Amino acid sequence: MKIKPLNAIELDIPVASRVSRLREILVGIFRAQFANYLQVFAGTGVRLGLQAVYFLILANTLSLHDMGVFASTSSTGIMIGCFSGLGFSSFAFRAAAGKRRSLGGYLAVFYVSWLISLPLCFVAALPVFYLLFTTSISLTAFVVIILVEAGTWRIVEMIHQVNNGLGRYASASLVISLGTALRAAGAVTFLASGKHDIETWAAVYVIFNIAAMVLAVAAYQPRIRLRWSPALFIGRLRDALLFSVAYCAFISQNEIDKVVMLSLADQRTVGIYAIASRIIDFTSVPIRTFYVLYSRKLILERRALNQIRRSLSVEVAIALTSTVAFAALLTILSLWPNLLGHNVASAVPLLAVLLAVPAFKNLLEYHSELFFAYQQMTVRAVLATSQVALKAAALALLLICLGNIAEWGVWLNAIYIGLYALSAVIVYSLVFGSKDK
Questions:
Q1: pLDDT 10s digits, 89-108
Q2: Overall average pLDDT of the 111-139 stretch
Q3: Residues with Cβ < 8 Å from 360, sequence gap 6 or more?
Q4: Distance between CA atoms of residues 163 and 171, nearest Å
Q5: Which among 70, 202, 314, 348 could bridge 141 via Cys, Cβ 3.0 to 4.6 Å?
Q6: pLDDT (0 to 100) of residue 437
């Protein structure tokens, strides 16, 4: 039998082309990223539903007056609470995303810093109480709400962020969803109590939030040994405090307006504005889900693939998504104003004139994520502080000059557009400009 030489045999084996291999790789990456997004969004979607239950029960159980007082007190606690943990939650997230061996050290530093900072947060809140809240709420109820916003919920959020950094999106979704579920259960308990004043709500609020904190620590904190390091604490304290200042300034962009309103307008107006702000926040849930994955991606890739064109494309997508979601919600509320309750119906006229606010508010949050991912914390702190001062001054001027809520509501669009323009100039000249050069 004649045997052909090996090099003469034609093996009929299909060879994948470079194009098909590239396509397979891209499809695999897309599927993995999309699966991650669905995991994160699934938890966020559940959280949105629970937040809606919590918000609708609370907004229609408290009077508009008490809703305004609670919103202002909560905003005060959220702003002061940015210094809870002295900013070390940001390092815990970065360690989880990129340097996991150091996570135990940063978690230990965070908890010690949390214990140090919590009494300082109470001290910082007292002047605000005596200046604005003495006639609206008792000191006990005020301190209890501050404890939740500056203490218990900060730990829940930190554990949520760390799990996201580790890529454990299901656990991250569960920890925040279960915490929100307990808040919703608290609202149901408050509704069933028969006493619908802010003092009763404060007591219910703290009990269920403490339960959320205990559950988060017991079930979802990563099982690693905490290693306290004084050198780590001292060495990173400056950067952590810079993050706290920047984060406080950023958060204050969304919260300072309620405090300004309480000082210049009546509590009912603050309540209406707080409800409108919360409705706008609901439309940004899908976008905030995207931020979680995008921030982690930017940290891991270390700017290697960043381009201005890509960032601008992201901005367009954010603006379109925000506007479409808000328009859909506004259309529904216009057709059925009482769909979400009588108190929410009071905010519909204000919502109708805030057409540009959701998009530009979300774009400001996107810029903040860029500063964080590229470790431009000093720039972020200076910019955010300037924006808070500008927004507070502009809002105060509107409240003084314009008495009608719809009139000054229209001008809020201009305020947010101006804040965005300032932020965009800084972002694209410093964050991207320095890289491109």
A1: 888 888 887 777 788 888 99
A2: 92
A3: 319, 413, 416, 417, 419, 420
A4: 6
A5: 202
A6: 46
Please choose, from the candidates 279, 419, 295, 280, the residue with its C-alpha nearest in 3D space to the C-alpha of residue 360: 419
Q: Is 99 helix (H, G, I), strand (E, B) or coil?
A: coil
- 157 by Cβ neighbours in 10 Å (0-12 / 13-18 / 19+) ranks as middle
> What backbone torsions phi and psi does residue 8 show, to the nearest 5 degrees?
-95, -10
Q: At which residue do the structure tokens 């009912």 appear?
A: 268
Could you state, in order of their start, the residue ranges of all structural domains in the chain? 30-436
Q: To 5 degrees, how large is the angle CA 206–CA 343–CA 332?
A: 115
DSSP state of 100: G
Torsion, CA 107, CA 108, CA 110, CA 112, rounded to 10: 160
| Structure tokens belonging to residue 190 | 């408050």
Please indicate, yes or no, whether the overall pTM of this predicted structure exceeds 0.70. yes
Q: Write out the two tokens for 8.
A: 């003469």
Predicted local distance difference test score (pLDDT) of residue 23: 57
Could you tell me which residues come within 8 angstroms of residue 395 by beta carbon, excluding any fewer than 6 positions away? Answer: 257, 260, 261, 408, 412, 415
**What average pLDDT is seen over the chain?**
82
